[in-house]
Design a protein that fits this description.
This protein is α+β, with helices and mostly antiparallel strands and 431 residues long. It has 11 helices and 22 strands. The longest helix has 32 residues.
């Protein structure tokens, strides 16, 4: 049986049989302008559907007053029967709503994905340097050499002053449970220790005795030549340790060392910038650290810019009173902050290849001892490692420049170290 739809006052009813349509039209349920259709696409005026409905019904529809011709018709109900409640919009309208709904869902999904990757690449903006310092303060350690003589800690006395048997070399920071990153020149500070450490001991003793000039240092060495020779004879490295900050004296012994394969150990201090892009190394330690720094990904590194705020944690000591107040037994890293001055390649030019721009000039205050410090953003991710401090010579003594035109190496240089040869600590030191 053919079913019909009725459109009246912008609402569609049905489908119902022809008899039902006739009945509802005759009872005045619909206005005289109502239309009928079998497919909801092609509509005709009910009044013109003579082939479908009796003439009486058509006449009633045209008159708009069915009661005038059917006095026995019962009072009309206030609402249409359930079968003739208004239908939902036609398929074309439903399709549009579905399309809009899908479009909104896709937009929300894209926004969610973009937001996730923005969070991943750029970190949570709510963090502050204070929070990062508190969160990762125990990830930084002071690299030290512990000396001994005949299996006992050495007691070094030179020029009437006792010198600690624990010699600080630089800074390192944890990047995994048992790996610390530092500078290649810090690692080379461990190599061939007798000569290097004797020099450090002599200089430390000289400073403790008030020596300020190169001429005074020469006199001090001549006056203490016998004692210096005795120290050189009995000196032995007992261990290399990373003494952790914010940890009440916790320490890790260094077992293995990896240095950037292109670092040149015979470069003079004046030419140290030749080594800058390779001044990064890994110290493998015993045990496991409870916490370590996250590293910035490549996208974040490529988006670094001049004027961006950065900070570091390390152990600046050189030329500072009382070694900068650093307690070697229980060192506490010093927080410093600044901004990026410029980012270039190592020929001091801005390369068109982002991967080449790994030289970062900054103004974070630093001094000798801070070499190897992590440089990080407010999201806690490490973007670079401190390697160079601006300085000048004052009567033969190296002094930190007030300009603080300091240097750092972008942290992605680390990936070349991971595939380099791994030396045992003893093998590396030549023992």
């Amino acid at each position: 049986m053919t079913q019909y739809y009725v459109k009246d006052k912008d609402k569609v009813y049905g489908p119902v049989s022809a008899g039902k349509v006739t009945d509802f039209v005759s009872k005045g349920f619909f206005s005289p302008e109502c239309q009928v259709s079998t497919d909801r696409q092609n509509w005709v005026a009910a009044a013109s559907a003579i082939e479908l409905f009796p003439r009486q019904v058509v006449r009633l529809v045209k008159s708009g007053n069915p009661d005038a011709d059917d006095k026995n018709t019962a009072a009309l109900p206030q609402a249409l029967p359930p079968v003739l409640q208004a239908l939902p919009p036609q398929k074309s309208g439903s399709g549009l709503k579905i399309f809009i709904t899908i479009l909104i869902v896709l937009i929300l999904l894209v926004c969610g994905v973009v937001g996730f990757f923005a969070w991943k690449h750029f970190g949570k903006p709510a963090e502050t340097f204070e929070q990062v310092s508190q969160k990762y303060g125990n990830c930084v350690g002071l690299v030290t050499v512990v000396l001994e003589n005949d299996g006992k800690l050495m007691e070094i006395e030179l020029g009437g002053r006792k010198i600690s048997s624990v010699i600080p070399i630089g800074t390192a920071f944890a990047v995994s449970e048992n790996q610390f990153v530092t500078n290649s020149h810090v690692a080379y500070g461990l190599k061939g220790q007798k000569k290097a450490l004797v020099a450090k001991i002599v200089v430390a003793a000289a400073i403790a005795n008030g020596v300020k000039t190169e001429a005074e240092l020469k006199k001090f060495i001549d006056a203490n030549a016998k004692d210096i020779q005795e120290i050189r004879k009995n000196l032995r490295v007992r261990s290399v340790e990373v003494r952790m900050s914010h940890s009440n004296g916790k320490r890790h012994e260094v077992k293995n060392i990896q240095v950037h394969p292109d670092y040149q150990s015979d470069v003079s201090v004046k030419e140290e910038s030749r080594n800058a892009e390779f001044d990064i190394a890994i110290l493998h330690v015993d045990g496991k650290t409870d916490n370590f720094f996250p590293l910035a990904d490549q996208n974040m590194l490529h988006n670094l810019s001049a004027g961006q705020e950065i900070a570091s944690l390390g152990f600046p000591m050189e030329g500072l009173r009382d070694d900068g107040g650093i307690d070697i037994k229980k060192p506490e890293a010093v927080f410093k902050s600044g901004t990026i001055g410029k980012i270039t390649d190592f020929s001091n030019k801005v390369s068109g290849l982002p991967d080449d721009n790994k030289s970062i000039t900054h103004d974070i205050p630093a001094a000798g001892g801070a070499s190897g410090s992590p440089i990080f953003l407010k999201n806690g991710r490490v973007v670079a490692i401190l390697w160079g401090v601006s300085h000048f010579s004052n009567n033969g003594s190296r002094q930190v420049s007030a300009a603080q035109h300091n240097q750092a190496l972008r942290i992605d240089a680390l990936k070349e170290v991971k595939s380099s040869k791994k030396y045992s600590c003893r093998e590396w030191m030549g023992e």
